[in-house]
Amino acid sequence: MKYMEGMLRxxxxxxxxxxxxxxxxxxxxxxxxxxxxxGAKVVITSRNLEKLQHTAKELEEKTGGKVFCVACDIxxxxxxxxxxxxxxxxxxxxxxxxxxxxxxxxxxTERLTHSAFDSILDIVLKGTKNCTLSIGKYWIDQKVxxxxxxxxxxxAWTGSxxxxxxxxAKAGVLAMTRSLAVEWAKYNIRFNAIAPGPFPTKGAWERLxxxxxxxxxxxxxxxxxxxxxxxxxxxxxxxxxxxxxxAYMNGEVVTLDGGEWLQGAGxxxxxxxxxxxxxxxxxxxxxxxxxx
Length: 292
Ligand code: HXC
Ligand code: NAP
Fold this sequence. Notes:
This protein is α/β, with parallel strands linked by helices.
């Protein structure tokens, strides 16, 4: 299938340096691999250096590209500043920031302690703010252009039960995307976001659908296209959004979910479950009401 293949031309990210937070696993790793294939050098960062180094080795062998690993808890401003300095020392420039790192847990909100709630807000909203402000100030001071891609979720605008800290934080990240897209355009800094639907990853799946929940709630059934996402199709979109090919796109959030959130939203979408033979009878009943 075409969507399992890389989409952009080979040198689409040549001479670019990208920072991918949470780049050691899941969707961050998939984006990192494709950015390397397209010629970028990539800094991957998260709390677990060993995991990052393992990923870097694997991806360098696969792609022949260059990965630099920096351990950094994005909740901590000093660590983010040190990560930026280390990236600049290694590669001499930063062109792209992908705010991908996140934390989440499924829980009735009343069961959460105040610090559990904070923990998610701090990773997702404060962490994204820390990275954006640190690298944004560098771009502005140096008078160089930059591109930010924020990974959000579709419940950033619908909200969702049982993931309330994440929903609040992602809504904040979406507001930041749209606000800074306008405010920092004068510095030649672009902001866009992707709202992925279900893309199986160890990090998300084991935390959000533990035990037999994954079988009980088959995510494919929530998606009109009846499948989950492939990592390459998200990497394709991400690479386009951070590349110069999307130079006129700014402040956009692109949903990549097979129609999932709209299926939950449309008033009469549940009628899709009716067998088609029922429609003859229903039509006859509706016509019989005419003039009555
Ligand atoms: C309730 C929990 C909990 C849980 C931890 N806590 N797990 N409360 N339910 N499942 C509480 C702890 O008791 C503690 O409370 C507080 O939260 C902080 O816990 P720590 O373990 O110290 O937190 P920390 O080390 O910061 O870990 C953060 C984490 C962890 C979010 C809890 O899961 C993590 O690191 N996750 C990163 C990866 C991840 O979540 N990926 C999924 C992203 S998917 P007290 O009161 O004792 O302090 C996504 C969208 C998916 O974002 C959409 C799918 C369609
Ligand atoms: P994942 O593999 O768990 O990725 C989360 C990453 O964030 C991990 O690499 C983790 O690394 C890092 N991280 C967590 N806390 C951190 C901190 N304090 N500082 C630095 N890094 C931290 O999950 P994923 O599914 O690939 O998710 C990637 C992104 O896609 C997230 O923004 C998520 O909200 C979004 N998303 C995913 C889905 C999906 O279906 N998978 C759907 C919608 C949105 P360490 O633990 O090593 O720190």
